[in-house]
Amino acid sequence: MAEKPDSSAARLVEEYGSALFALCLVMLKNVPDAEDALQDALLRYIERAPAFDTREAERAWLFKVAANRCRDRLREARRRPTVTLEELAGLGAESGDRQLLAALMSLPEKPREAMLLHYVEGYDVRETAKLLSLTPSCVKMRLKKGRELLRKEISDG
After folding, report:
1. Helix extents (H) in 29-135
2. Which of 1, 24, 26, 59 has a CA-to-CA distance to 91 between 20 and 30 Å?
3. What pLDDT digit, counting tens, does each position of 61-106 carry?
4. In this structure, which topology does domain 106-157 adopt according to CATH?
5. Number of H helices and number of E strands within the chain?
Protein backbone atom coordinates (compact mmCIF):
# COMPACT_ATOMS: atom_id res chain seq x y z
CA MET A 1 0.00 0.00 0.00
CA ALA A 2 1.38 3.39 -0.99
CA GLU A 3 2.12 5.93 1.73
CA LYS A 4 -0.02 9.03 1.59
CA PRO A 5 2.26 11.88 0.52
CA ASP A 6 2.91 14.59 3.07
CA SER A 7 3.36 17.65 0.91
CA SER A 8 4.39 19.80 3.84
CA ALA A 9 7.22 21.98 2.61
CA ALA A 10 8.82 21.87 6.05
CA ARG A 11 8.97 18.06 6.02
CA LEU A 12 10.45 17.97 2.53
CA VAL A 13 13.11 20.51 3.41
CA GLU A 14 13.88 18.78 6.71
CA GLU A 15 14.25 15.31 5.18
CA TYR A 16 15.77 16.04 1.79
CA GLY A 17 16.77 19.70 1.63
CA SER A 18 20.48 19.40 2.42
CA ALA A 19 21.14 16.44 0.16
CA LEU A 20 19.12 17.89 -2.71
CA PHE A 21 20.82 21.24 -2.33
CA ALA A 22 24.25 19.57 -2.43
CA LEU A 23 23.26 17.77 -5.64
CA CYS A 24 22.05 21.01 -7.22
CA LEU A 25 25.10 22.96 -6.04
CA VAL A 26 27.56 20.45 -7.41
CA MET A 27 25.73 20.25 -10.73
CA LEU A 28 25.14 23.98 -11.20
CA LYS A 29 28.23 25.37 -9.40
CA ASN A 30 26.47 28.44 -8.03
CA VAL A 31 24.22 29.05 -5.07
CA PRO A 32 21.38 31.05 -6.70
CA ASP A 33 20.79 28.50 -9.46
CA ALA A 34 21.08 25.62 -6.99
CA GLU A 35 18.48 27.24 -4.73
CA ASP A 36 16.16 27.81 -7.70
CA ALA A 37 16.52 24.23 -8.94
CA LEU A 38 15.87 22.87 -5.45
CA GLN A 39 12.81 25.06 -5.10
CA ASP A 40 11.54 23.92 -8.52
CA ALA A 41 11.91 20.26 -7.51
CA LEU A 42 10.11 20.76 -4.20
CA LEU A 43 7.32 22.73 -5.86
CA ARG A 44 6.85 20.01 -8.46
CA TYR A 45 6.44 17.51 -5.62
CA ILE A 46 3.92 19.72 -3.81
CA GLU A 47 1.94 20.45 -6.99
CA ARG A 48 1.73 16.82 -8.05
CA ALA A 49 1.66 15.23 -4.58
CA PRO A 50 2.66 11.82 -5.96
CA ALA A 51 2.08 8.71 -3.85
CA PHE A 52 5.09 6.50 -3.19
CA ASP A 53 5.36 2.99 -1.82
CA THR A 54 8.35 3.90 0.32
CA ARG A 55 10.33 6.90 1.53
CA GLU A 56 13.23 5.68 -0.62
CA ALA A 57 11.04 5.88 -3.73
CA GLU A 58 10.04 9.40 -2.73
CA ARG A 59 13.71 10.33 -2.22
CA ALA A 60 14.73 8.85 -5.57
CA TRP A 61 11.92 10.73 -7.34
CA LEU A 62 13.00 14.03 -5.77
CA PHE A 63 16.64 13.44 -6.74
CA LYS A 64 15.66 12.66 -10.32
CA VAL A 65 13.46 15.77 -10.57
CA ALA A 66 16.18 17.96 -9.01
CA ALA A 67 18.83 16.57 -11.39
CA ASN A 68 16.52 17.19 -14.34
CA ARG A 69 15.90 20.76 -13.18
CA CYS A 70 19.65 21.27 -12.95
CA ARG A 71 20.17 19.90 -16.46
CA ASP A 72 17.44 22.24 -17.73
CA ARG A 73 19.23 25.21 -16.17
CA LEU A 74 22.58 24.11 -17.62
CA ARG A 75 21.04 23.92 -21.07
CA GLU A 76 19.50 27.39 -20.74
CA ALA A 77 22.80 29.17 -20.19
CA ARG A 78 26.14 28.90 -18.47
CA ARG A 79 26.22 32.48 -17.39
CA ARG A 80 27.32 32.52 -13.73
CA PRO A 81 30.66 31.89 -12.05
CA THR A 82 31.42 28.75 -10.06
CA VAL A 83 31.00 28.49 -6.31
CA THR A 84 34.14 29.33 -4.40
CA LEU A 85 35.44 27.46 -1.37
CA GLU A 86 34.57 30.52 0.70
CA GLU A 87 30.91 30.22 -0.36
CA LEU A 88 30.96 26.52 0.54
CA ALA A 89 32.43 27.40 3.94
CA GLY A 90 29.59 29.87 4.42
CA LEU A 91 27.11 27.02 3.96
CA GLY A 92 28.43 25.35 7.09
CA ALA A 93 30.00 22.40 5.30
CA GLU A 94 32.76 20.60 7.17
CA SER A 95 36.29 21.06 5.83
CA GLY A 96 36.43 17.54 4.37
CA ASP A 97 33.02 18.03 2.79
CA ARG A 98 34.16 21.31 1.23
CA GLN A 99 37.24 19.64 -0.20
CA LEU A 100 35.18 16.79 -1.62
CA LEU A 101 32.58 19.15 -3.08
CA ALA A 102 35.32 21.35 -4.55
CA ALA A 103 37.00 18.33 -6.14
CA LEU A 104 33.68 17.08 -7.51
CA MET A 105 32.85 20.51 -8.89
CA SER A 106 36.07 20.48 -10.91
CA LEU A 107 34.89 17.42 -12.85
CA PRO A 108 32.93 17.54 -16.10
CA GLU A 109 29.15 17.31 -15.65
CA LYS A 110 28.60 13.64 -16.55
CA PRO A 111 31.13 12.01 -14.22
CA ARG A 112 30.40 14.66 -11.56
CA GLU A 113 26.70 13.83 -11.21
CA ALA A 114 27.33 10.06 -11.28
CA MET A 115 29.99 10.36 -8.57
CA LEU A 116 27.83 12.61 -6.42
CA LEU A 117 24.88 10.21 -6.50
CA HIS A 118 27.01 7.09 -6.03
CA TYR A 119 29.71 8.15 -3.57
CA VAL A 120 28.15 11.07 -1.72
CA GLU A 121 24.47 10.11 -1.65
CA GLY A 122 25.09 6.37 -1.42
CA TYR A 123 23.07 5.12 -4.38
CA ASP A 124 24.35 1.88 -5.87
CA VAL A 125 25.24 1.69 -9.56
CA ARG A 126 21.83 0.37 -10.59
CA GLU A 127 19.98 3.09 -8.66
CA THR A 128 22.30 5.77 -10.02
CA ALA A 129 21.69 4.51 -13.54
CA LYS A 130 17.95 4.70 -13.02
CA LEU A 131 18.13 8.24 -11.60
CA LEU A 132 20.25 9.41 -14.55
CA SER A 133 18.30 7.42 -17.17
CA LEU A 134 21.44 5.50 -18.13
CA THR A 135 22.57 1.89 -18.26
CA PRO A 136 24.56 0.53 -15.31
CA SER A 137 27.59 0.02 -17.57
CA CYS A 138 27.45 3.69 -18.60
CA VAL A 139 27.37 4.71 -14.92
CA LYS A 140 30.36 2.46 -14.20
CA MET A 141 32.30 4.12 -17.02
CA ARG A 142 31.41 7.60 -15.71
CA LEU A 143 32.48 6.60 -12.21
CA LYS A 144 35.76 5.22 -13.57
CA LYS A 145 36.41 8.40 -15.56
CA GLY A 146 35.56 10.55 -12.53
CA ARG A 147 37.96 8.60 -10.31
CA GLU A 148 40.71 8.91 -12.93
CA LEU A 149 40.15 12.67 -13.25
CA LEU A 150 40.16 13.12 -9.46
CA ARG A 151 43.32 11.02 -9.15
CA LYS A 152 44.99 13.15 -11.83
CA GLU A 153 43.90 16.38 -10.14
CA ILE A 154 45.18 15.19 -6.77
CA SER A 155 48.55 14.10 -8.19
CA ASP A 156 48.89 17.39 -10.13
CA GLY A 157 47.82 19.46 -7.11
Report:
1. 31-48, 55-76, 85-90, 95-105, 109-115, 125-132
2. 59
3. 999 999 999 988 888 755 444 444 454 445 444 555 666 677 777 8
4. Arc Repressor Mutant, subunit A (1.10.10)
5. 8, 0
